[in-house]
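Our collaborator T.R. sent over the components below with a one-line note: 'Predict the complex.' Nothing else. No constraints on interfaces, no templates requested, no preferences about which chain binds where. So this is a plain run: every listed entity goes in together, and whatever single assembly comes back becomes the starting point for the next discussion.
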Amino acid sequence: MELEEMKSLWSNLSKEVEQQKILTDNLIMEMTKERINSKLNKIALPEMIGALVCFAGALFILANFSKLDTWYFITCGIFTISYLILLPIVSLRSLFKMKNVSLDDTNYKQTLIKFSRNKKRYMMIQKSSIYFSLLLVFTAMPLAGKIINNKDIFFESNIWYIYLPVMLVFLFFFSRWGIKCVNNVTQSSEDLLKDLEKSSSSN
Amino acid sequence: MTKKQAFTEVIKENQGIIFKITSVYTNHKEDQQDLYQEIVYQLFKSYKTFKGNAKISTWMYRVALNTSITYLKKEKRGGVRIPIEKILTYKTEQEDTIIEDRIVLLHTQIKKLNIIEKGIILLYLEGKNYDEIAEITGFTNTNVGTRLSRIKEKLKTQILK
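Returned assembly:
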């Protein structure tokens, strides 16, 4: 198919589309109003719910911090609280940055560069959160045992014999899948950026 | 005429542009509806500050294409969709089925292009010259030319397969 044929086919399509004047004043204003009213829907809901769950977890540990009476429980507690508070904040901040790229005063190329960079950054945060969650698995369980049942499961080897292999198998598959997804998205953003940077240097 | 009335007039006048852009950047009807609504909203927001320095169509293509780049599918599914089924279930009234098939084929192949190529070919097919494409996309005229010939080759190969 030659470009001229493509153009003529596109113009056929355009003529047909132009004839269909379906939008009314009301429909247009309804569309904009719906978007204004549902501003919150635009915020990625799963990330928001995830962040709330993390904050609740951090608050729970913080409220019971006095029950952590040994150096290793205190270390686990500090790590878990920091993780549960910091990671959702960093992740949400990066997500907002990615979504809040200016749309009317930048051209297509600038928007693509900004968006791809922010997306790459967001994906890197997601990737590091997967690695950190591996550590979290080993700190959360003893903490829960200590706070809820006042048990020091570091010295209860039977639990570790079951818990460790099960968690390791689960985490192996989960992190392999998660990192593969993240790598695919990051790679496509990188390829796009390379292409755009190449065109900038050849201009 | 109030600014609001002027805005709705602009949208009504150029609704075909939005339709064509959304149809290239999405693969499913629901996504297309969401993107359509998002573009109208972004145009509404941007219209308040539009001073008329650029042509209205240039401004419109710029905002609509930028919105399509930053459009994130999964997050908008929760929102309410205004029923604009009729527009988005557009079916050509061409009696010539060969032309209809060719249009569908072209559309399918454009969707397979990467995001940079999609934007450039769309503007080209919309009848924009190199200067206008360069103004909207930010690439130089030479770069637009080079990319267009690459896209042409790519589409040819894809269609022949």
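Summary for T.R.: Chain A has seven helices and no strands.
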